[in-house]
Amino acid sequence: MASQLRKGVLEYCVLALLRDGPRYGVELLAELARVEVMATSQGTIYPLLSRLRRTGLADTHLQESESGPPRRYYTLTDAGRSALEEFTANWPSFRNAVDHFLAPGETT
Amino acid sequence: MNDPLAHPLVLAYLSSIEERTTALPDARRQELLADLREHIEVALAESGTLDETSVRRVLDQLGTPGEITAAALAEEPGNHPTPETSRHTSITLCLAALALPAALVPVAGPLLSLAATVAALVRLWKSPQWVRREKRQATLLLLSPVVTVPAFAVICSVALGGLTAIALLTALLLAAFLPVAAAVRLGRSATRLRQQLSW
């Protein structure tokens, strides 16, 4: 149940995490894992990241690091930013609609 | 520092994922494996140690090969090869394995053999059950008797002192080995793909 819900919104949470600047994979996944409902096996996010890259919502580049191997940073593209804005605009009415049906005595 | 990707646990983990993702388009599969390799390298570099405990922790956080494979397959809607029925596969493999022995049937033998080979090849190439590479290899093995039967016939007739019926029969039996091996390999790979898609 929780996983079905998560599936629909996870990509927008990822886009939102990239809103304020690039993040590399390990960092991005650790950030997601900090919020319990969004926590999932980290490796399952890579196919999602691959799709975001393929559909042009996110972009990646390698950047050298002071310690260890270079990191692959994910950045939001313009298309990704507008997809996120659209979701952000629609989310409140979606959330209200669900609340409306869930609230006792209001479904008549 | 040692190469984290050479750690036996990491190798086993990655090859398990590689084995389970044959149903993915090749580019997608390579990309997934590259992403996971990078993740493991970075996560272990950040943990500072390469002992077994940290390797296990990083792999545990990534999730089981089964979970990752399922997520990767779920990102490819409509792109899965729909598995054919196992009966359909069995008929293809029987045709492949029996094509050469069919040559032993009196009179109609050579014709039967040719027909079975052609039918097996057509079914093989039309099937979504195998990737191109497997189909190419199997085709070579199935057509190998064209070369191996005459070759073994020459060897056997030299060894047995003349092109006798026994020599010919031995040559056919020896040459039948490669097509049968091809059928066995195709059968194994088809079974594996069915298991992947049934998750």
Describe the structure.
The complex is a heterodimer of chains A (108) and B (199). Chain A has 108 residues and is an alpha+beta fold. Chain A has a single domain (2-102), classed as Orthogonal Bundle (Arc Repressor Mutant, subunit A), CATH 1.10.10. Chain A is 56% helix and 13% strand. Chain A has helices spanning 2-17, 25-33, 45-54, 78-102, and strands at residues 23-24, 58-63, 71-76. A three-stranded antiparallel beta sheet of chain A has the order 1-3-2. In chain A, a hairpin with a 7-residue loop joins β2 and β3 (71-76). Chain A starts with a helix and ends in a 6-residue tail after the last helix. With 199 residues, chain B is mainly α. Chain B folds into two domains: 4-74, no CATH class; 86-197, no CATH class. Helices cover 74% and strands 0% of the residues of chain B. Chain B is built from ten helices and no strands. In chain B, α1 packs antiparallel against α2 (26-47). Chain B starts with 7 loop residues before the first helix and ends with a helix. The mean pLDDT of chain B is 86. Chain A binds chain B through residues 24-26, 29, 33, 40-51, 67-69, 71-72, and chain B through 28, 31-32, 35-36, 38-39, 41-43, 45-46, 61-64, 67-68, 70-72, 74-75.
Short characterization:
The complex is a heterodimer of chains A (108) and B (199). Chain A is an alpha+beta fold.
**Major sheet of chain B, described briefly?**
none
Residue stretches of chain A low in confidence (pLDDT < 50, at least 5 long) are none
Number of strands of chain B: 0
CATH class of chain A: Mainly Alpha
The fold-level CATH name of chain A is: Arc Repressor Mutant, subunit A
